[in-house]
Amino acid sequence: MIELQYGIERAGFSLEVNLELPSQGITGVFGVSGAGKTTLLRCIAGLEPAAAGRLAVAGEAWEDTRAGVSLPVQQRNIGYVFQEPRLFDHLSVRANIEYGARRRHGNNGVSFDYVVDLLGLEALLERRPHALSGGEAQRVAIARALLCSPQLVLMDEPLAALDRARRNDILPFLDRLHAKAQIPIIYVSHNIDEVCRLCDHLVVMDAGGVTASGPLQDVLVQLDIPVLGGSNAGSVIEGTVSGYDSEDDLSCLEFSGGRLWVPGAAGAQADTVRLRIEASDVSLCRSRPEQSTILNILPATVDAIQSVESASILVRLLMGKDRIVARVTRRSIRELGLREGESLFAQIKSVAVRAAAGRAPSR
Questions:
Q1: Within a 10 A sphere around the Cβ of 311, how many other Cβ atoms?
Q2: What is the pTM of this model?
């Protein structure tokens, strides 16, 4: 595990965190601007001199204020990816990536050829940074961070400076990184779609504190976290590709609550895929509609009801072993007379799919 206990007090802001994070996969740190996400990363990297607390990675204490332990920045085995790529303009892409090797803490890390292949950089190696798009430059920055053989990678909103098209260019490479890299990553973002697509564990921060921490699927369906309400409300479940209808270009996905149809080829037979269902794309009805343009209408049980805005209510539904969230109006709840424990039907209008092993998502 990665143990984090940090406190900072300064004018207008305080940070207080006490976390245990998994030492594999991607941990998302989510919250609005000013929640303390970047400050937490700076504490981990040793860039916050006012920070007091403890940091232990794989049982090794990198910082322990009480014991007088505080490794300097250069001795912390960390790869850091900032919002801006921060490449050396006078060096080629190859030389920028190789710069990471100079900071290696051992010979047990990934190879140059591996990171170049992983991030699709073969055709860019002889270019200079000024000839790269924003997404290409950020992929180079990630490669450089990986090549220093880190025990931990910190990513501070690496896609925030990119427009939608450039974000879409780089996300499939981050999918591959998630699927193949063995290095734990802490990924800061205020974009819920990025978090749901990439992360396994989720930490929600607000006003310098931790609101929730746990497996992504479990945290997303907590109805009492304000930042996960409104337009951010939704759920993530896993499904298995069970078929493809070439005539209608639809994939069939099986999960514990039944069967979902999604547009396009979601993957090969038996592939495991991640499904993101936004709360606004789920509507509720007492009886199953006989005629509807919505393909996915499944039985569900009301698990919890939570008021989030003056007009909106979040309803958590049990579907098999999975939980999804619907956002409906207060009037709809009253007119349907919904109560916890009742059975009904959920109409799911849209499902975002991220296939396993870094395949591109479909919608």
A1: 10
A2: 0.89
